[in-house]
Each structure stands twice: as structure tokens, then as C-alpha cells.
Design goal:
- This is Winged helix-turn-helix domain-containing protein.
- InterPro entries: AlkZ-like.
- With 359 residues, this protein is α+β, with helices and mostly antiparallel strands.
- The protein is built from 13 helices and 15 strands.
Length: 359
């Protein structure tokens, strides 16, 4: 049983997400450590997959590095809305066929068995292909309660088939995914791992990405990976990465970090509140009159404290990064404020535009 102070627990969490002063060198190093880089088209400042990398690597990161790692070097792959390191492929491929699906989704797949077969035959013959080049021969349409899908069933079916390992994403043209058979996309990957062993591997990698997490949490999925820990002032049962414990004395210090709202550091909201005293609410889907901090405010971490939210956006012509506000949530000194402003100016430089509205 490890007994950690709250400061130690926060340092472990920050370092696990590569948000301390010791920056990683490239996107592969980022993906190997944090396990998954979220893909999302919302680009108020930059798409999440790009800003997640920039937040960690800094000025040395160029957007083309990510697509090269995925499509040319094949060191990363796209699965279930994230870019992931190729080292996770054996474990993920072992569990893909047994992924849990809701009853309605299973019924949809069963009713469209012929449609699924036709997609596989088309990809085998003509792939790789974008969804737009695959005909919709579905017998039944999926319910569209979320409003995310149109009448064409091809994108929906491809996503489900990808989740189950029947098809794979070989690359993108712009933001349009290109699909192919997994044996071509994942060529050379061993998929013979036992599913139970695969689950154990994945739980360990999730804990590596978090550093410390609640043992029984649907947000983290670490199970009994790592070792038991207590955190000062918390009644939760924690699991901690033993390598993170061993590295506690090797502290490179903190820095300012601007986090995309879909950053993995923010995903486990209960942990965020328990460890950091920070309750983050994404206001993107709130009516305008109910927003307090802005449509897509980016949390700002200084050291191991969440101290502010950045409300900023590229203007319509994408010629300026316009700062509407830096909402300070905690007391910060002049040096910390300058660190934040310097990071915002660096963000504008990375985007290739001047920053407007920063005091």
C-alpha cells in the first residue's frame, strides 16, 4: 500500500500525461505514453488531435507529423475515434470481436448481415475506399436519436464494423476516412493474444496513461492494474503505476499547459475533482445564455493546479487568434500569469497568426 500526499498524487497524474516541464520529442512518444489521442473536428482553435500533440511537444510539433506517423510509418493507427500506438494493436485486435454492443445495435447488425458482407466484398475487390464510394444496400436503418448520422447507412455500418475489427481505417483525405480490410491495414500485427491477457495489458496501459486512478471507475478502466494506494484526504481506493512511484523523486518541475476540452487529462471528471479540486463543464452544448466561460473554453494547468480557462478562437478568416477572456479560477501570481500569456502567444505562433485581445 502506497501512501501519497495530494501533491504527490497530482504530480503523478500530470507527469503521466506528459504535462510537466520534461516535454516529449514526437507524436509517437506522446501516443505510447498517453495511449490515445482524441480525434474531433471541432476547431475553435485547432482540432483536438493537433492541439493534444502541441500541448505536450510544443514549438517542435508540426501537424504533418501525425499523419506521417499514421499513414506512412504505421507507428500509430486510428481506432474508435482516437489515434493509438501500434504497440496496442495485438491487445485491441484480440478483444475487438467480443466488444459489447447494445441489443438494438446487435439487431441492426443482424438485420443488415448481407449489407456487411457486401461492404467486405467491395473493400476486398476495390479498397481502400472512402465511405462515399461504397453503396448503401442496407435493409434496415439505425435509429438516429443523437442526430449525428444522415440517412446513408454506410458511415454508421463502417464504424460498427471497425469497432468489431471487421474493417480498418487506412488513412484520411482531409478529414474523410479511407477504409480497407484489417489484414491489409494491420499487416504484420500478431492478433493471436488471448482476450483475457489482452484485457490485462490494456488495463495496465490505461493506468500508465493516468499514473493514478480510482480502482472501480468506468472512466478509467484500470481495474486492479498497478499497486494499491491511499491519497491524503481521499476515501477512494486508488491504483497507482509503480513506475510513476519510482520516478517521484525525479521531478522536472511544472509549466503552463493549455488543454483542449477533449484532452485525455480531462476525461475522468470525478478524478479531476477529487485530485485537483477542478470541476470542468464543457459548455459547447449549452445554450449561449447559460455559458459562463465560453463555447469551447480550454482549461489551463500551471504546475499541478488548474488555475484558469482560456476563451479564445480563430476569427472567421483564420487570420487572428482572438482572446475573449482568460478566466482566472484560482489565485495566481505575476510570474504564473506571464507563463500563461507566454503559452498563449506560443499557441498563436504555432498557428501562424497574431494573438489579439491578450492584456
Amino acid at each position: 500500500m502506497h501512501r501519497l500526499t495530494r501533491d504527490e498524487a497530482r504530480r503523478i497524474a500530470v507527469r503521466a500525461q506528459l504535462l510537466d516541464a520534461d516535454r516529449p520529442g514526437d507524436v509517437v512518444e506522446v501516443a505510447e505514453q498517453i495511449g490515445a489521442i482524441k480525434i474531433d473536428p471541432t476547431a475553435v482553435i485547432a482540432p483536438s488531435e493537433q492541439s493534444v500533440c502541441w500541448t505536450r511537444i510544443g514549438w517542435a510539433y508540426e501537424p504533418g507529423q501525425l499523419s506521417k506517423a499514421v499513414e506512412v510509418d504505421r507507428l500509430l493507427f486510428e481506432y474508435d475515434g482516437h489515434f493509438r500506438p501500434a504497440s496496442l494493436l495485438p491487445a485491441l485486435r484480440a478483444i475487438m470481436p467480443s466488444r459489447r454492443l447494445g441489443g438494438a445495435t446487435r439487431q441492426y447488425l443482424d438485420a443488415n448481415a448481407a449489407f456487411r458482407t457486401e461492404i467486405l466484398e467491395r473493400l476486398d475487390r476495390d479498397g481502400p475506399l472512402p465511405a462515399s464510394e461504397i453503396p448503401d444496400t442496407s435493409a434496415v436503418q439505425a435509429k438516429n436519436e443523437s442526430g449525428w448520422y444522415g440517412a446513408n447507412q454506410v458511415p454508421r455500418m463502417l464504424e460498427l464494423m471497425s469497432y468489431l475489427g471487421d474493417v480498418a481505417i487506412s488513412g484520411r483525405v482531409g478529414r474523410q476516412r479511407v477504409w480497407d480490410l484489417p489484414e491489409r491495414v494491420y499487416a504484420g500485427t500478431d492478433a493471436a493474444m488471448n482476450p483475457a491477457d489482452a484485457e490485462e495489458v490494456l488495463a495496465g496501459r490505461r493506468l500508465q496513461a493516468l499514473g493514478i486512478a480510482r480502482q472501480k471507475s468506468p472512466w478509467s478502466g484500470v481495474g486492479t492494474a498497478g499497486e494499491e494506494a491511499e491519497v491524503e484526504g481521499s476515501s477512494w481506493r486508488w491504483r497507482v503505476d509503480p513506475e510513476a512511484i519510482a520516478a517521484l523523486d525525479d521531478d522536472p518541475g511544472g509549466r503552463a499547459a493549455i488543454l483542449n476540452p477533449y484532452d485525455r487529462m480531462l476525461f475522468d471528471r470525478p478524478r479531476l475533482t477529487e485530485l485537483f479540486g477542478f470541476t470542468f463543464v464543457l459548455e459547447q452544448f449549452k445554450p449561449k445564455h447559460q455559458r459562463v466561460y465560453g463555447y469551447f473554453a480550454h482549461p489551463i494547468l500551471v504546475g499541478d493546479r488548474f488555475v484558469a480557462l482560456l476563451d479564445a478562437a480563430l476569427d472567421k478568416k483564420k487570420e487572428n487568434l482572438v482572446v475573449a477572456a482568460v478566466h482566472e479560477l484560482a489565485q495566481i501570481d505575476d510570474d504564473e500569469r506571464e507563463m500563461i500569456h507566454a503559452e498563449i502567444r506560443d499557441l498563436g505562433e504555432w498557428l501562424g497568426v497574431p494573438v489579439r485581445g491578450l492584456e
